[in-house]
Amino acid sequence: MVSVHRLKPTPEHLACVLDMYARSGSIAKAIEMLDQYSETVQPHSSNIREALLSSYTSGHLDVRIEKVVGSSMVLTEPSRDAGYVMLSNLLCATGQWTEAKRVRRAMSEHGVEKSPGCSWIHVKGAVKVFVSSGGHLDPSDYSMWYHSLVR
Fold this sequence. Notes:
Elements: H1 2-5, H2 11-23, H3 27-36, H4 38-41, H5 45-53, H6 63-76, H7 81-93, H8 97-109, E1 118-123, E2 126-131, H9 142-150
Antiparallel strand pairs: 1-2
Helix pairs in contact: 2-3, 2-5, 5-6, 6-7, 7-8
GO biological process, one term: RNA modification
InterPro entries: E_motif (IPR046848), PPR_At4g14850-like_plant (IPR046960), TPR-like_helical_dom_sf (IPR011990)
GO molecular function: RNA binding
């Protein structure tokens, strides 16, 4: 990207590319990219790790790597739900129910709650936000949800 287009990739760009590599089963390429751009990635490591962990949802499991990444997320950011939830889901997907229960218990002990899923649409100049509970957010909450999604 730098040599051909003279563009330095942003952390958001790297997270998208890592997600694509991970979902296609190219975990080795994703890790190679992480190593190549480690200085760019470091301050934004949570989003990057989440992109790498997303591979388990597409059936491309590398359990050893996923456990290391998930555990790292839990250790470095114990107050965020993403690491706990993704690690627990990975463990469930591989039949490690006792370990998954241990991760969920640790999440509870740290007072961390899973954030509800959120989606939004833009219709006729208005934004409508939906959360997984089936409800919708008050317009005054849009800013909070938007900032929590893009951090």
